[in-house]
């Protein structure tokens, strides 16, 4: 292992903490639909996802190269900049996890890195062309492509199984859903674990322990893969609830189509070196699957809150990263202040989350303040004819409850006298 100073050690540990939060923040991407449809039990699903995340981390380093060599200029970047970037990314991950919103850990990391770099050496330190071509364009294209593919895939699955009973097809689709969920987990490892590899490699280059342009060392690959797997095994139950139940109600056919579409998009982007958000891909696929089923409904107010979080991710993490960089560059005491602030913030957010805990026992329960049906859904329900026999049954029940039986008469009572 390269010679690492105390500052670099703090940066590496912080990077692995980010990787850990990335794991439980993005567990929903792979397993939310599988859990919501009952294809796998919650704990089994997250353990399976964790193992495949670890395997995926060893399959490629293309995304790591994009982070470590392309996003920002290595010249002039100091380890304090990397630390500040990680602070912005971790805090955004934890805040969005607390409120149950599926946001992009990748964009949080890149936003923090861009903000800290601009605060340190100016706008010239950021490679704008790389940001646009390998970050922003994929961020917009990924959910659209995955959503269209999932919509078409859902329609196709229902068309193929139209003449087969739901009971006969459900088991097969659940098996397919498990396989596709595993594929998403594998893809997540090939994409997201590498972002931490890239950021640690960039820190080692900035600290002078690696030559510019170096690939991630083996120990970096192993530690990053292990950290994201441990985070995944913890389970991000709040976001799993939102992704599995909050956006739309999925059946096994839809879950299979959504996960297969998302996995295809993620694996293709990893091969091309695009630093793609798995959250964007999977969320787009889930919404597409919701639209692909006849009668399916997407809860657009939940989706709108999610879109707002997506739009805020880069600037919010960037602002926090820039502020942290300003404090950290003041000297060694500044680094300690930033590290202490991060630790205190993490503890505070965790304590707040304990007020209304969400875990594997209640992840599939609908929240008491869950979003009601939208105006369109309510209108459709109001004009939809009831099933045959419903009206008669209701009328008969009303008659029974509104027309009382005659009161029994007492034989000993005198006859009623008619009023004159």
UniProtKB/TrEMBL annotation:
<dbReference type="Pfam" id="PF01384">
    <property type="entry name" value="PHO4"/>
</dbReference>
<feature type="transmembrane region" description="Helical">
    <location>
        <begin position="6"/>
        <end position="24"/>
    </location>
</feature>
<dbReference type="GO" id="GO:0035435">
    <property type="term" value="P:phosphate ion transmembrane transport"/>
</dbReference>
<keyword id="KW-0812">Transmembrane</keyword>
<dbReference type="GO" id="GO:0016020">
    <property type="term" value="C:membrane"/>
</dbReference>
<keyword id="KW-1133">Transmembrane helix</keyword>
<feature type="transmembrane region" description="Helical">
    <location>
        <begin position="45"/>
        <end position="61"/>
    </location>
</feature>
<keyword id="KW-0592">Phosphate transport</keyword>
<feature type="transmembrane region" description="Helical">
    <location>
        <begin position="219"/>
        <end position="240"/>
    </location>
</feature>
<dbReference type="InterPro" id="IPR001204">
    <property type="entry name" value="Phos_transporter"/>
</dbReference>
<feature type="transmembrane region" description="Helical">
    <location>
        <begin position="307"/>
        <end position="327"/>
    </location>
</feature>
<feature type="transmembrane region" description="Helical">
    <location>
        <begin position="132"/>
        <end position="153"/>
    </location>
</feature>
<feature type="transmembrane region" description="Helical">
    <location>
        <begin position="108"/>
        <end position="126"/>
    </location>
</feature>
<feature type="transmembrane region" description="Helical">
    <location>
        <begin position="81"/>
        <end position="101"/>
    </location>
</feature>
<comment type="similarity">
    <text>Belongs to the inorganic phosphate transporter (PiT) (TC 2.A.20) family.</text>
</comment>
<keyword id="KW-0472">Membrane</keyword>
<dbReference type="GO" id="GO:0005315">
    <property type="term" value="F:phosphate transmembrane transporter activity"/>
</dbReference>
<keyword id="KW-0813">Transport</keyword>
<protein>
    <recommendedName>
        <fullName>Phosphate transporter</fullName>
    </recommendedName>
</protein>
<feature type="transmembrane region" description="Helical">
    <location>
        <begin position="333"/>
        <end position="352"/>
    </location>
</feature>
């Amino acid at each position: 292992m390269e010679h690492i100073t105390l500052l670099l050690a703090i940066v590496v540990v912080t990077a692995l903490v980010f990787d850990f939060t990335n794991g439980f923040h993005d567990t929903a991407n792979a397993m939310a639909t599988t859990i919501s449809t009952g294809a796998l039990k919650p704990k089994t699903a997250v353990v399976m996802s964790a193992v495949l995340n670890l395997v995926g981390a060893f399959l490629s380093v293309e995304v790591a190269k994009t982070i470590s060599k392309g996003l920002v200029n290595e010249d002039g970047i100091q380890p304090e900049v990397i630390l500040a970037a990680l602070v912005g990314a971790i805090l955004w991950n934890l805040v969005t996890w607390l409120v149950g919103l599926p946001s992009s850990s990748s964009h949080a990391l890149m936003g923090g890195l861009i903000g800290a770099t601009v605060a340190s050496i100016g706008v010239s330190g950021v490679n704008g062309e790389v940001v646009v071509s390998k970050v922003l364009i994929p961020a917009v294209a990924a959910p659209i492509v995955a959503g269209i593919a999932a919509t078409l895939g859902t329609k196709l699955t229902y068309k193929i199984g139209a003449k087969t009973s739901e009971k006969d097809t459900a088991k097969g689709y659940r098996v397919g859903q498990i396989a596709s969920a595993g594929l998403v987990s594998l893809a997540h490892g090939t994409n997201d674990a590498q972002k931490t590899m890239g950021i640690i490699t960039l820190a080692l280059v900035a600290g002078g322990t690696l030559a510019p342009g170096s690939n991630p060392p083996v120990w970096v690959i192993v530690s990053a893969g292990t950290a994201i797997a441990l985070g995944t095994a913890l389970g991000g139950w709040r976001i799993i609830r939102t992704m599995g139940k909050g956006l739309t109600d999925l059946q096994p056919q839809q879950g299979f189509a959504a996960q297969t579409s998302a996995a295809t998009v993620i694996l293709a982007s990893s091969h091309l070196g695009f630093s793609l958000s798995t959250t964007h891909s999977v969320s787009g696929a889930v919404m597409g699957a919701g639209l692909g089923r006849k009668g399916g409904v997407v809860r657009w107010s939940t989706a709108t809150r999610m879109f707002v979080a997506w739009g805020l991710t880069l600037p919010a993490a960037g602002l926090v990263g820039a502020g942290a960089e300003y404090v950290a560059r003041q000297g060694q005491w500044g680094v300690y202040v930033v590290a202490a602030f991060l630790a205190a913030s993490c503890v505070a957010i965790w304590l707040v989350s304990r007020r209304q805990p969400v875990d594997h026992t209640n992840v599939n329960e609908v929240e008491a303040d869950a979003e009601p049906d939208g105006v369109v859904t309510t209108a459709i329900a109001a004009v939809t004819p009831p099933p045959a026999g419903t009206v008669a049954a209701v009328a008969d029940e009303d008659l029974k409850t509104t027309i009382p039986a005659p009161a029994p008469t007492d034989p000993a009572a005198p006859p009623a006298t008619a009023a004159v």
